[in-house]
Design brief:
The complex is a heterodimer of chains A (about 325) and B (about 260). Chain A is of the alpha/beta class and about 325 residues long. Chain A contains 11 helices and 10 strands. In chain A, about 40% of the residues lie in helices and about 15% in strands. With about 260 residues, chain B is an alpha/beta fold. Chain B has one domain: Alpha-Beta Barrel (TIM Barrel). In chain B, strand 7, helix 8 and strand 8 form a beta-alpha-beta unit. Classes of the chains: A alpha/beta (about 325), B alpha/beta (about 260). Chains A and B meet through helix 6 and helix 7 of A and helix 10 of B.
Chain lengths: ~325, ~260
């Protein structure tokens, strides 16, 4: 019989906690742990993989612009009210992690600062699960709004983002002061991912409080580039390069639902079949591939895709032996 | 690359004195400085003038591991001194070193196995230093064969081709570099390779330049580890850059700092 080949890795991925319970100074009912891997995804025989990848439900502070009808079917009744939307996700879909995108803060929409503050304060009271907060993507506006969010959420140990190579100082300082972790975004570029981690940690935020967003592409849209970047970063981490030993966050929903294959109605392309099924499968398959590349947090949209990917993770974790 | 700091050695005047006076602070300071420079392990050697090497080695181990939790490399020609150190080391130990002589291998491979230590094997014997690469390869093969027979993990074996000073053995340098590559084909998995770097420049001028040029070349021949002076900043920079060019580290703008932060 051929001897089973077991690789002995010397490094491990950083463990990161999202959410602080009352004993830890926050108000979350529980916290979520990610990272800690000592081998590549799901190779349970080789070494310890202590924590399952987690799914964060994506919600917005405004009624989402251009989300597919396949999604409005599930959330259309609540997405005009963020608090009710969040509540529904927790009660009906058993969400354990929420990712709030402050899309309304964008200058083109121009949501009032007071409204954002009120929303966050309301959210803190309404839901008691760990939170991820994402800006609107406009650098100036995010540099203004996100430090404020960081302050309101002080001690709740949130994950806040995003920063990039040209704009990281303002938010890093805020996150450092308020006890959160940060999302470092790089444009499918391994060298920039590494450099950004150095820049952030030079400001005093420990490497253990950084999550890398390697930027993903959906199935058919550069998924394999992301995959190889994530794999290479993870191999370096397992070979003891502490600088890149960060867990990954992947915005699967956002990428999957903007490709035509996910949303084009059947009546336009009859050979593609029902868009109701096709859309969530596109998100599901993209998520599945990224799990194999080492994703730790998947930010997703369609409840059925989330249900299936959770089943898939649970199934694989039945092989966990340590 | 696996870097072992060489500066805790009794042949250096300040270290020799500190050992005699049992001055912990000097030893610990040198240990921490080397760690800060990015070493993976520390070599401990009581020096040739030690009157009581067994006690000195134990004192060094205890003193260093009070402040450092990296692997320690026990550097002595006497197995009983190495064993005394192995008994009290809390972290991983490296035995420095055995030769290819059977009577040495018998004792030191057994110690390495019992204490779960790594082992450095010098490719020389009681007959002396090999005269060419064929002899060197033969000695390397003898060490590997003995370790395999005794079930000692070859991945924990570091073969040292024994670097000779440039001013007395200029015509042997190419052979030594070739050997680093050839040691790798002796077995599967291959043994690791190591050099005591400072030998290359012993008694020569331009020592730092010789050291960093040799290590750069040795790395490109596949070298895995070296015992060296980690406080030579340019030397460490040359190592980092060599590894980068060989794609062993991910490039980023601050690659020198990134390596030291690992």
């Amino acid at each position: 019989m051929i001897k089973e080949y077991i690789e002995n890795w010397s490094g491990e991925v950083n463990t990161l906690v999202i959410g602080a319970t009352p004993e830890e100074g926050g108000s979350r009912r529980f916290s979520v742990k990610i990272g800690g891997e000592r081998t590549l995804p799901f190779l349970f025989k080789e070494a310890l993989l202590p924590f399952k990848p987690v799914i964060a439900y994506e919600i917005w502070d405004i009624e989402p612009i251009d989300w597919a009808t396949a999604l409005s079917k599930y959330y259309g009744d609540v997405w005009g009210n963020t608090l009710e939307w969040a509540d529904k996700l927790i009660r009906e879909y058993k969400a354990e992690l929420l990712c709030l995108k402050l899309a309304g803060a964008h200058p083109e929409i121009g949501k009032d600062l007071d409204e954002i503050v009120k929303l966050l304060e309301g959210l803190l009271k309404k839901v008691d699960i760990p939170l991820i907060i994402i800006g609107c993507g406009d650098v100036q506006r995010d540099n203004f709004i996100l430090p404020l969010c960081s302050q309101i959420l002080k001690n709740e140990r949130c994950l806040i983002g995003e920063v990039n190579q040209d704009n990281y100082k303002t938010l890093t300082a805020a996150v450092l002061a308020d006890g959160h972790s940060i999302i470092a975004q790089s444009p499918i570029d391994i060298n920039i991912a590494k450099q950004l981690n150095i820049l952030i940690s030079d400001m005093g935020l420990p490497l253990e409080r950084i999550v890398i967003n390697p930027t993903v592409g959906a199935l058919g849209y550069g998924l394999e580039y992301t995959y190889s970047i994530m794999e290479r970063l993870r191999l370096a981490a397992l070979n003891n390069d502490r600088v890149v030993a960060s867990p990954f966050i992947c915005f699967v929903g956002q990428e999957s639902w903007r490709v035509k294959e996910a949303t084009t109605p059947e009546k336009e392309f009859s050979r593609w079949g029902s868009e109701w099924r096709r859309g969530y499968l596109w998100e599901l398959i993209t998520a599945g591939a990224l799990l194999q590349a080492g994703a730790n947090i998947l930010v997703m949209r369609h409840p059925k895709a989330i249900e299936k990917i959770k089943e898939y993770i649970d199934k694989l974790y039945e092989f966990k032996i340590n | 690359m696996f870097i072992i700091g060489e500066l805790i050695n009794g042949m250096y005047k300040n270290v020799g004195q500190a050992i005699r006076k049992r001055d912990k602070s000097i030893i610990q300071e040198i240990a921490l400085k080397q760690i800060e420079a990015g070493v993976d392990a520390l070599d401990l050697n009581c020096g040739p003038l030690s009157e009581n090497p067994l006690e000195d080695m134990c004192w060094l181990v205890e003193t260093v591991q009070e402040v450092v939790d990296k692997p320690l490399c026990l550097d002595s020609s006497k197995p009983r001194i190495i064993e005394a150190g192995l008994k009290i080391i809390k972290n991983k130990a490296i035995i420095n070193s055995t030769s290819a002589d059977l009577e040495k291998l018998e004792i030191l491979v057994d110690l390495a196995k019992r204490y779960n230590a790594k082992l450095i094997g010098l490719t020389l014997s009681s007959k002396g230093v090999p005269q060419n690469k064929e002899q060197r390869l033969e000695l390397a093969a003898e060490i590997v064969a003995y370790c395999s027979r005794e079930d000692f993990s070859i991945e924990d074996l570091y073969l040292d081709p024994v670097v000779l000073p440039i001013n007395v053995a200029q015509d042997r340098q190419r052979d030594i570099l070739d050997s680093i590559q050839e040691f790798k084909v002796i077995s599967e998995p291959p043994p690791k390779t190591i050099v005591g770097l400072s030998n290359i420049s012993q008694g020569a001028s331009q020592r730092p330049l010789l050291n960093r040029t040799f290590i750069t070349m040795a790395i490109s021949f596949g070298l895995d580890a070296a015992i060296l002076n980690p406080l030579d900043n340019e030397l460490i920079n040359a190592i980092i850059t060599s590894e980068l060019i060989l794609n062993r580290q991910i490039y980023c703008e601050s690659f020198l700092k990134a390596y030291r932060k690992r």
